[in-house]
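Colleagues,

For the teaching module next term, I've prepared a clean inverse folding example: a structure given as tokens, and then the sequence designed for it. I'd like students to try predicting residues themselves before seeing the answer, so please don't circulate the second half yet.
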């Protein structure tokens, strides 16, 4: 049902939560689980919570050292957060995220739903690798959710979306969607271009680029469009270099 969705657990602390998350994946038809630098992972402790039915998901879970590596090949990644404001803006509700995930999948995209560590959540740097953020509304007197509970809630919303509008491609796509890594490369190139034409200043450029990042996250950017925009940036930087030979960009 959710074959193109991957649940990514970043530095999970408790093997039991990993096992429960694997069971949630099975319940909602998501066969893909990735663990980023799990702390003290013990499959024997995780297995009872996974149950024999989701044993195959747990045993085939991919393990990576970094989130960047875990997102390799994904065309979109949606990170979960309980903190809002500051750098974390444009946060979606679970149902909204499910609609966006459905759209990506219907375009043959590979989507990751990313969950941070139980005790600290994801860092600002990790959330910036995600194309969007989602939060699960809770009672203010009990804002903390168990990791596996959060996985189940978000996958359930995606599962409901799949039932109402099955994730079937509308025909052979002309071009695949850009991966998260390619989007980051374009974002970095665009930032350098805006610095080169003096649209941005050197101070706190990451903050001022946040609206651009959110704008790009809403685009279903295809590979040919990526090539087009990268070429435009390259040409603009070349012209800026001739017009302002003493100006440097990072």
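(Answer key — instructors only)
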């Amino acid at each position: 049902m959710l074959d193109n969705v991957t649940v990514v657990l970043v530095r999970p602390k408790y093997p039991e939560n990993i096992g429960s998350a694997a069971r949630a994946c099975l319940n909602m038809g998501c066969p893909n689980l990735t663990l980023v630098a799990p702390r003290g992972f013990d499959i024997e402790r995780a297995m009872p919570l996974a149950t024999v039915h989701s044993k195959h998901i747990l045993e085939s879970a991919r393990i990576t050292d970094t989130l960047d590596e875990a997102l390799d090949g994904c065309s979109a990644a949606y990170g979960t957060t309980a903190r809002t404001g500051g750098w974390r803006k444009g946060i979606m509700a679970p149902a909204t995220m499910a609609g966006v995930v459905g759209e990506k999948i219907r375009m043959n995209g590979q989507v990751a739903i990313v969950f941070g560590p139980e005790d600290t959540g994801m860092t600002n740097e990790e959330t910036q690798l995600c194309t969007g953020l989602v939060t699960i509304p809770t009672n203010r007197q009990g804002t903390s959710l168990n990791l596996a509970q959060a996985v189940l809630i978000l996958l359930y919303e995606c599962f409901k979306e799949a039932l109402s509008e099955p994730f079937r491609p509308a025909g052979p796509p002309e071009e695949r969607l850009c991966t998260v890594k390619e989007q980051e490369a374009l974002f970095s190139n665009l930032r350098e271009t805006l610095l080169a034409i003096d649209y941005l200043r050197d101070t706190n450029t990451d903050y001022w680029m946040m609206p651009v990042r959110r704008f790009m996250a809403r685009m279903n950017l295809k590979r040919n469009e990526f090539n087009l925009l990268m070429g435009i940036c390259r040409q603009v930087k070349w012209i800026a270099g001739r017009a302002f030979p003493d100006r440097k960009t990072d």
